Amino acid sequence: MRALALAGLLLAAVAGGCGAEEGSAAESATELRITLWPQGVGKRPTRRYTLRCNPAGGTLPRARRACEALGRLRRAFAPVPRTMACTQLYRGPSEALVTGTFAGRPVRARFDRTDGCRIARWDRHRFLLPGTPAAPA
Predict the structure, then answer these.
(1) CATH code assigned to 27-128
(2) How far apart are CA 4 and CA 7, in angstroms?
(3) Which of 33, 37, 40, 123 is least surrounded by Cβ atoms within 10 Å, i.e. has the fewest?
(4) Verdict on whether the full-model pTM lies above 0.85
(5) Mind listing the pLDDT tens digit for each residue in 40-85?
(6) CA dihedral 125, 129, 130, 132 (to 10 degrees)
């Protein structure tokens, strides 16, 4: 039984190594479209950006830094869990939509600043949302 468990661990380690190589290739499959509404959806001005990684490019300012920061995020674009208790804060009407692909996977992420959890999520992705104020410390 021990040998079987050891073989399973070895197989998992080998598979994990393969995943790392695939992750490097998948990073090149990052192409995002970012739409910002600083005053809320439907209100002007609307800002639009693009971001590509490996090589870094697009219209987003500091694209290379944005690609690096995106690569460091754990669970990039994960929504706020529905069961999460969040502080009742409001940091303005700003909204954003990010669509496209990240590491080869489809992305459709909405951002707003309507409670503490969403403000924290916005701030984690601030490098993709230029020109919007940070939450006060």
Answers:
(1) 3.30.350.10
(2) 5
(3) 40
(4) no
(5) 787 777 899 999 999 999 999 999 999 999 999 988 899 888 888 8
(6) -100
